[in-house]
């Protein structure tokens, strides 16, 4: 442990470091983002008939609850990031982002939102980055493991 951290804080510092190097951070960040988005959907938008293509399937108030619940599940799952619960929460969060990306893409194709594809890029980027981060985290040990002579150049 670093010399700047007092000896009595080393166990806590190790726990914090272990968490920060885990997939728990990805779950926490995704959860906070989804929770914030869900909270934003509780306020009706001003302007034209609907604010989001998904409103054709469910009212935004219902979508707000879905986003908030999944956000909270992800935040809780961050603590137990190596469980099936965490994997299901992660899948739900990624799936929700991909659903939103798909709805904006569909709205672009139908002409309802000509620039909806731009929003799709953002949602797809979040989903891909989270999937890559969690995949990379589980395979990091493979990258740092010593190689045998058969892999020498």
Describe the secondary-structure layout.
Layout lengths: L9 H11 L3 H17 L19 H18 L6 H27 L5 H29 L9
Main sheet properties: none
Residue fraction in strands: under 5%
Show unreliable segments: none
Based on CA inertia axes, which overall geometry fits? elongated
So how many helices? 5
Cα(first) to Cα(last) distance is: 35 Å
Question: What integer value in Å does the Rg equal?
Answer: 20 Å
Mean pLDDT: 84
Number of strands: 0
Description:
The structure is a single chain. By secondary structure, the protein is an all-alpha fold. It is built from five helices and no strands. Helix 4 runs antiparallel to helix 5 (116-144). The two termini are 35 Å apart. The mean pLDDT is 84.
Short description:
By secondary structure, the chain is mostly helical. It has helices at 10-20, 24-40, 60-77, 84-110, 116-144.
Provide tags for this entry:
153 residues; mainly alpha; 5 helices; elongated
